[in-house]
Amino acid sequence: VCVRVSLSDSWEIIEGLKGNPGNIQEPEKQEGFLLKRRKWPMKGWHKRYFLLEKGILKYSKCRADLRKGKLHGCIDVGLSVMSIKKKTKAIDLDANNNIYHLKEVKSQELFDDWVSKLRHHRVFRQNEIAMYPHERHLFHPSHLSPNLNDSMRQVHFSSDRDMSLYRLALTFSNSRLSPSLIHVPHCSLSDLKDCESYLLELNLLLKSMEVLHRTSSAPAISPPSSAGHGPQDRLWLGELGVFERERVCGACDVFHNTARVNLISGDCLYTKHDMGTDLKLCCQSTSPTNQGLPDGSRQLVHQASNESMSEFFDAQEYQLTSSSSENEASDDDSYISDVSDSVSMDTGYSNEGGSERHDSGMPCGCSGGSGVQVACRRTTLPSPQPSSSSVSLWNILKNNIGKDLSKVAMPVHLNEPLNTLQRLCEEVEYSELLDTANHTQDPYQRMVYVATFAVSAYASSYHRAGSKPFNPVLGETYECDRPDKGFRFIAEQVSHHPPVSACHCDSHNFTFWQDVQWKNKFWGKSMEIVPMGTTHVTLPGFGDHYEWNKVTSCIHNILSGQRWIEHYGEMSIKNTSSDACQCTVTFVKAKSWSSTVNKIEGVVTDSGGRVIHSFFGKWHEGVYQGDTPSAICIWRANPMPVDQDQYYGFTQFGVELNELDAALKPFLPPTDTRFRLDQRCLEEGNIEGAEEQKQRIELLQRERRKVLEENNMTHKPRFFKKSKDDTWLSSNTYWEQRKDPGFSSREDFPVLW
């Protein structure tokens, strides 16, 4: 049957400026009410009054608020990816940090009018940015100075000197510097150019600080080279901790004010010579090698990311957690990182020792629970991550705006040498939190440990926004037997359409299981991932059965810029065996110019709603219980391996997951992920071989599916079964079959690769 799909049923991406910039007439203003999707955690749509002027879209509750300057938000249309869906009269604007979903439901005529105006304003704004590229980075559209921008368009500069002076005025537009700066006397053109270079460098430095506040996964940042500056003068902000960053901000603020005062007074001699010296001193005084940091803060210093990381993470595979609906204007919440790291042996604990922990439980060569000799585990991957600069993501994704990417084929360059089943195993890296919970008498404190374990599952995603895990094929399995950690883990891909992964983990102190599938959409610059399914944990010591949901994830800057990951939403944890207490954990959505990035807040309440315990922290760093500054560290993420930025951002636990030990190999079923050839080739740095094997494995899966359909058969998972409530549970047969008669003696396994 041939089905004709109307173009109005799909998303259409709006093209931008073509050709060289030139003189484009300013388009007419457009204003009126539109529906806007409400910000998280609220659902649905509400009506907002929008004003589109000079390529900037502002909105408020009503026209009166807009005229009074009471803005709820401001969007630079020129810097956004715009897509429309005619059938539903929907308009999506994907800005750098947020996705704005708009609708005009009254009439098709009004919708077409808004789309037309947005097209014109977007091209106009892009032309403006192309003509004055420096100004794009120096101010936000919501803080534009009308006088400065109007004068830039209207004034015909009589000399390069006047242009330089105007650029200096624009540089300090946020400081309300008057355009009358062009009358500064006794300044040569070369002096002014040097001033402009230094001030531009400072502004880019301050802009980099904004990025660091928004995402501490930003790379080491070095300002553009200018006269008198060498590589030794670069300030590596990515390596700075909380206290060092405060010192950077203070030094930059002093430098900024001094330079501004001297510029206004016309002292260009100071500006040319001393400005460069002061900027050098600012950088040197805030060197990351500074030894004045308190010991407690050193553990929370952020790692620098590698700028050559892979170009894309496909959200379909696994939650790298975050959101894309925008934050409207709200007060900034300050985050206090310098809490006490004192640890009580009774109520708190830390993971000091980091990567050495994998050998601390049992010595090398000791026998695991399955009778297999456990060798010393590897500490690095066989080959570093290859460059993906040759992959054009836009060509792959431009026709998939607003669509689910689970069926979109991606080149192997974008993968990491782990798959989704192994990613699920990474969630139990900090299983010792559940061990502690099973030996804690207080039910409220037990809930704190369980909630912290749920938060720790996201820690491994912090450095992983640059690549995606492999998709498991139907019937693929993975086991992880870790006697040093006291657990045995199995996972299986139980469904292909929709893709569902199920896992089960046994320990003397807990049982952990879940089945997960993901819905995802690409919005032009961001990837939104919504996981579905429930996570379960039981503690045999008290008969507790805990359940919780996963939060939404978003990966920002998919196509360009520093890619970063965000987790947002509300996680509700309940004990189905008792209503004595419950817990709510909020993954706070990041706000620009604030330190709320990666922040979590949680409360444990009794049956009457009274708060018994509170905790806070950052999902990639640690969790603290109580109030600052006397809060106790409940959990801290393990230190990252050396050169982790060159090895996909894997944790030490992640490095070990795909290792195929010679002693273990005979005991694994042929469907185990470790035998997957495309993943193994990528791990060894053989990109061509990985791509060839990936296509071959995908072809085998399609052929198996075709055979099942022709024979009117359905796939039956080997080690999991479906329960009455449509969840997947372990059939408790894996370890029995593994022991007797062993998987090597069975011949009924499908040929997956």
TrEMBL record:
- Positions of the PH domain: 27-123
Instruction: Specify whether Endoplasmic reticulum is a keyword of the entry.
Output: yes
Query: What membrane topology was assigned to this protein in its record?
Result: Peripheral membrane protein
Question: What SUPFAM superfamilies does the record point to?
Answer: Oxysterol-binding protein-like, PH domain-like
Instruction: Outline the subunit composition.
Output: Homodimer. Interacts with RRAS. Interacts (phosphorylated form) with VAPA. Interacts with OSBPL6.
- Say what the protein does: Phosphoinositide-binding protein which associates with both cell and endoplasmic reticulum (ER) membranes. Can bind to the ER membrane protein VAPA and recruit VAPA to plasma membrane sites, thus linking these intracellular compartments. The ORP3-VAPA complex stimulates RRAS signaling which in turn attenuates integrin beta-1 (ITGB1) activation at the cell surface. With VAPA, may regulate ER morphology. Has a role in regulation of the actin cytoskeleton, cell polarity and cell adhesion. Binds to phosphoinositides with preference for PI(3,4)P2 and PI(3,4,5)P3.
Q: What is this protein called?
A: Oxysterol-binding protein
Q: Which organism is it from?
A: Oncorhynchus kisutch (Coho salmon)
**High-level lineage:** Eukaryota, Metazoa, Chordata, Craniata, Vertebrata
Q: What is the primary gene name for this protein?
A: OSBPL3
